[in-house]
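queue> pop job 88
queue> type: inverse folding (structure -> sequence)
queue> payload:
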């Protein structure tokens, strides 16, 4: 983490300029990678969940069709 001068230059109560430091993180790439990893994990889990729902739907349709055939 490094501090760069240049934030707000609002006047201090005594009339002098007040500089607030701007914070810059040097590890932004790692943070972005972590976020992308989490997003990727969530996307994979969502796909698996959708696949499970589709499989359950297909199975339920087959069971209903078998019951209909049995009745006739």
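queue> result:
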């Amino acid at each position: 983490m490094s501090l760069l001068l240049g934030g707000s230059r609002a006047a201090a109560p005594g009339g002098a300029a007040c500089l607030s430091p701007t914070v810059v993180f040097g590890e932004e790439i790692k943070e972005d990678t972590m976020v992308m990893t989490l997003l990727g994990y969530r996307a994979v889990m969502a796909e698996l969940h959708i696949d499970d729902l589709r499989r359950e739907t297909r199975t339920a349709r087959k069971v209903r069709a078998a019951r209909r055939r049995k009745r006739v």
